Amino acid sequence: MNRVLRLSSIGPASVASVTIVLAALLAWTLVGPAIQAIKPVDAGYDLSTMVLYYSQLPRMVTALLAGACLGLSGALFQQVLRNPLASPTTLGISAGANLALVIVTLFIPGLLGIGRDIVALAGSAIVAGLVFLLGARREFSPFSLVLSGLVISLWCGGLAAVLMLLNERYLVSLFIWGAGSLSQQSWDIPLSLLSKFVVLAVVAGLLTRPLGLLELGEGGAAALGVRIARLRFIAVAVAVALAAFVTAAVGVIGFIGLVAPIIIRLAGARRPGAILFWSSVMGAALLWLADGVVQSAAGAMSDFLPTGAVTAVLGSPLLLFLLPRLKVRHRVMTHSVAHQLIRPGLSTLRVLTLAVIFLGLVVLAALLVGRSGLGDWSLIDATYWRDLLALRAPRVFAALSAGAMLAIAGTILQRLTGNEMASPEVLGISAGATLGVTLALFIVGLPSLVQQLGFAGVGALSVLAIILLNGARGGFAPERVLLAGIALSAMADAIVGVLSSTGDPRAIFLLRWMSGSTYNVDPTTAVVVTVFCCILGGAALILHRWVDLFPLGATPVRSLGVPLGRSRLLLFALAGALSAVATLAVGPLSFVGLMAPHLAREIGLRRAGAQLAGAALFGGGLMVAADWIGRTIVFPYQLPAGLVSALVGAPFLMALLRRKG
């Protein structure tokens, strides 16, 4: 007997109403005293009344409207794409709008005169076009769309972080705004959002009937006169516009668009009209409640505490709680050999030999080639080679080892979960390690390398433990594992964001470290990371038979005598340890853990042992190349290796996704 109260027995109206009541009660504790103390108009100027009229009330209305926009946007995405993972965050829509606004703010501020909405809409539209261009080659399957969205989102986020690091004078204000700040000083933003929401909500309402017919399947809907392509275009355009307008107004608050429609569907809503309406209401209630929590907890500092970050902190546990009740389809990852970058006639040994040669050339270039004091490209000067190698070698070998460990961890996770989107970055393992290091930085002050390893390991393994517990309850369905990872990653990143928004000087150091900088790697750190890489990587190769069997499914694994629970736990722990150590060296924003396993598979390395070795070689080489490019491309400035790897790797992976049709 299920002891947990089923949401479907309550209904979407009751669930949304309870959330609104909670938010309203919390809001009354904030504005109630001010409302009761309002003075007559002829009493003259009163500061508390002005704050109420022009700050507190506009902020509440903005929270309601922004939440409604995001809830409706997520519901439209999920309905028209038949994808429970779709949202403005997972499809990269909010990240595209944010990047466009950051670029224009820093370099072309004159364009803001034509309207922030237009700039944000242009960025969102470009990202949406890229996502659907990639997804169309796989018939808009849920996995291809979300994988494409996550790739593009990481690329946009990485580029935005690079731009902010190169413009530190704007760092704090851009960070707080980008993390979603609802602080208001007038009624301009809420009134502007209201008019746009009303228009787009009317258009969405007109789509309810064709969306209902779409429940019959594309063939059945087309037979009844629904133009599928036009319906998909209009629905996506409305959803993109809603997310873009919110980002332009208050920054990135993306978690609402994912969780609100899920709650409404779990509460029993089935018809598209009910899902769209109650998702809007639920989104408004959730964001209003989250903002009330922010103001109550932060007090006078609430203007500097990003509500978008707090939304993820509050919403992630809720999504994890509801996740076992979400019906998803289990799918085992397939390994098609239809497309390979290297002809099938080449043996595995030859392919690995080519990968070793590639890695050797990259390492030699990183050690021997650089920029002179005048900025010219040159080989290392024989007079200074000892001093220069002493500076370069620790960075190179730390990047090499970290990239290899992330690649091995990504390969294990993808095969273990049957999910080609799994990686330390996507599943939140790197974010958990980051959270551990952040706590060490704020608790210990100046943590030693051993303390950093300990805190990072605890953070990464904690995230993995939660994913393992949630996944076990649902048979490790890929969609459920991915949703748990997205929730935990959002929560860990949000906690780091809240800590970073305090204005503490350590926050700038933290942001640099999060971006994947190898600036401060010393010989001791390089040796430690390299030793861990050899030990943990060797363990992964020893266990390659287990890794080879898991994509077959639980029943074949058991029939072959593999202890399913123990082996899964051991491999998860190994992936967590690899991710934690690598994150210390190159930060959590690297793209290598997702990209390298795909690259190894694309060149024909299908068996686990070969794929682990190939992914490690490619991952190490890509991270070394990223560190070298970051060190030389904008000389005398330096770009973090983790961000460069994301910026370089994401377009390459997008090309692979496009090619794999």
Describe this structure in words.
The chain has helices at residues 12-36, 47-81, 93-107, 116-136, 142-165, 171-178, 188-206, 208-213, 218-223, 228-250, 256-266, 272-298, 307-322, 348-368, 385-417, 429-443, 449-473, 478-500, 506-514, 523-542, 544-549, 554-559, 564-586, 592-602, 608-632, 641-659, and strands at residues 369-371, 377-379. By secondary structure, it is an all-alpha fold. The radius of gyration is 25 Å and the shape is globular. It starts with 11 loop residues before the first helix and ends with a helix.
Strand fraction equals under 5%
Beginning-to-end CA distance, first to last residue: 45 Å
Strand order of the largest sheet: 1-2
| Radius of gyration, whole Å | 25 Å
* Oligomer type: single chain
Which whole number gives the mean pLDDT?
78
Number of contiguous helices: 26
Decide which structural class fits the backbone.
Answer: mainly alpha
Listing every helix as H and every strand as E from the N terminus to the C terminus, the arrangement reads HHHHHHHHHHHHHHEEHHHHHHHHHHHH
* Silhouette: globular
For the biggest sheet, the summary is: 2 strands, antiparallel
The low-pLDDT segments are 1-5, 329-345
For the secondary structure, the number of strands is 2
